[in-house]
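Action item from last meeting closed. Structure (205 res):
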């Protein structure tokens, strides 16, 4: 399995790259790398400008530049899938430090009949904590050519398996997998959560 980490978003509210913000002495993106590496043979970091983002893993890593810069996460998914050596890939944001490995593993294991496996709680879909197949490449390219950048539009064109709240709760009852750092308040909360609990690379929460 390949994992694609989207690191092309702007970080204007934090004043510097959110991927490099530190939590317990480790960058946000390193937290994400450590989580997905448990399940991955390959990690791809998709960036807007091809900048090197310092992080490390025993898993093979590479960085790709968004093919259509400035067009949001859909382009990052497209660029990552094009570079992937796997038929399917876990896709997550670089600012999601508390991903449940158990949930990601579950989505990966049931993904084979589908183009997308994505969590949904009531009406809220979590497209940046999901599994996508390379079968999404042609539909995404068509959307980008039309300047349609909403990921939800892709879901109307491909086979989607929505993961319901009952399934999510088996692995992540607090839904912390979907917590992302957008500003200082989020960063402070992430630091508090990381201090309160023993998050380890090996744990499969």
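Sequence:
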């Amino acid at each position: 399995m390949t994992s694609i980490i989207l690191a092309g978003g702007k970080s204007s509210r934090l004043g510097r790259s959110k991927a490099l913000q530190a939590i317990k002495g480790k960058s946000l993106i390193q937290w994400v790398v450590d989580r997905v590496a448990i399940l991955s043979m390959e990690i791809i970091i998709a960036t807007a400008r091809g900048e090197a983002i310092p992080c490390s893993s025993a898993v093979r890593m590479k960085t790709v530049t968004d093919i259509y810069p400035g067009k949001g996460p859909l382009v990052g998914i497209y660029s990552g899938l094009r570079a992937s050596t796997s038929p399917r890939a876990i896709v997550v944001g670089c600012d999601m430090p508390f991903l449940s490995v158990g949930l990601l593993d579950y989505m990966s294991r049931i993904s084979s009949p589908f183009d997308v496996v994505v969590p949904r709680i009531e009406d809220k879909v979590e497209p940046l904590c999901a599994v996508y197949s390379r079968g999404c490449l042609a539909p995404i390219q068509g959307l980008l050519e039309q300047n349609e950048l909403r990921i939800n539009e892709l879901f109307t064109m491909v086979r989607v398996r929505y993961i319901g709240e009952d399934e999510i709760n088996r692995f992540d009852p607090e839904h912390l997998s979907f917590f992302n750092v957008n500003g200082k308040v989020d960063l402070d909360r992430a630091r508090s959560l990381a201090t309160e609990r023993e998050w380890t690379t090996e744990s499969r929460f």
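Note appended to the action item: The domain at 2-196 is CATH 3.90.550.10 (Spore Coat Polysaccharide Biosynthesis Protein SpsA; Chain A).
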